[in-house]
Specification:
Helices cover 36% and strands 20% of the residues. By secondary structure, the chain is of the alpha/beta class. It has a single domain (2-169), classed as 2-enoyl-CoA Hydratase, Chain A, domain 1, CATH 3.90.226. The termini are close together.
């Protein structure tokens, strides 16, 4: 089980989203708290910027698909989306599936994503991945080069290590 904090990631994303007409690049994002990602992606949506998915986007990161308009999202050949059911801690500190939070994830995905998830077993404890032609049939490939605005994975990890707020990420498979 890995512990993650999304607070710093959200702050970095918001800082990136303030400059006009820049790309926001997602890569190596393992996700985090649903509420943080919903808030962060609402701010990205309101910024008017384009989102480039250029690598791994797992768990709550995939909420970008419902928060930002489809015409402002593009994917590269490296894009790889990971979906699973939401987790919370039980009274003994163990990660357990949360039907309530899983319903929040489900409600925030656009119909093509929900349809794909249904065809692949739905949101369960097992991570399922959407990439390649299947993903590119739902979201356009990025036509222009990826902009220079992005959140570096190492920056997020360094900040996550320094913060006291943490959340659970699902077990890696």
């Amino acid at each position: 089980m890995k512990f993650r904090s999304a607070t710093t990631a959200a702050m970095l994303w918001l800082g990136v989203a303030t400059a006009a007409h820049a790309d926001i690049r997602i890569y190596q994002d393992a996700g985090g708290r649903i509420d943080y990602y919903l808030d962060m992606f609402a701010r990205v949506r309101d910024s008017g910027e384009r989102v480039v998915i250029d690598g791994t986007c797992k768990s709550a990161c995939t909420l970008v698909l419902g928060a930002v308009p489809r015409d402002r999202i593009c994917v590269t050949a490296r894009a790889n989306l990971g979906f699973h059911a939401a987790y919370v801690f039980d009274p003994w500190g163990r990660a357990v599936m949360s039907p309530k939070d899983t319903a929040v994830l489900w409600a925030n995905y656009p119909p093509p994503i929900r349809n794909w998830l249904t065809r692949h077993g739905g949101l369960t404890v097992r991570m399922i991945y959407l990439s390649g032609p299947a993903l590119m049939s739902m979201y356009p490939p990025c036509a222009a080069p990826v902009g220079d605005r992005h959140v570096a994975h190492s920056q997020i990890e360094a900040e996550r290590a320094a913060t006291t707020m943490s959340i659970v990420a699902p077990p890696e498979e």
